[in-house]
Design brief:
CATH superfamily: Response regulator
CATH architecture: 3-Layer(aba) Sandwich
Number of strands: 5
Order of helices and strands: EHEHEHEHEH
Number of domains: 1
Strand order of the largest sheet: 2-1-3-4-5
Strand content: 15-25%
Structural class: alpha/beta
CATH class: Alpha Beta
Number of helices: 5
Radius of gyration: 14 Å
CATH topology: Rossmann fold
Largest sheet: 5 strands, parallel
Helix content: 40-55%
Distance between the termini: 8 Å
Length: 136
Amino acid sequence: MGKAVVICIIDDDDVYQYTVTRALKSDSLAKKILVFSDGEEALDFMIDNIASNDSLPDVIFLDINMPIMDGWQFLEEYVKLKPRVGKQITIYMVTSSVDPVDVDRAAKFSEISDYLVKPIQPDQIRELVAAMNSKE
């Protein structure tokens, strides 16, 4: 397996945060796990660390429905920030929404690698991260 990656979870669901964090830690798949409860916290972190590729996430698991700044608003701001980011970041939209409008909207963002519907199983998270680690 390649190097462990920096994983970012942007989701206001405490149970989901715990489940994903625990799955990643149990397999030592992440070098570091960043957890934010809304898009604004995550965006502020990225802006503050824009010059440090080691601090920025390799993978983002992004929820749609959150307070303050939702997943769509985060993506719109990330697209503006992306030219200043010095590394490839893989974004997975992880949501409970099965609304075709959301699925279609996500498809319009080239930054989104996949649209995953909750509940997502810890094994799915492990597989996604392990596949990414093997590419390194």
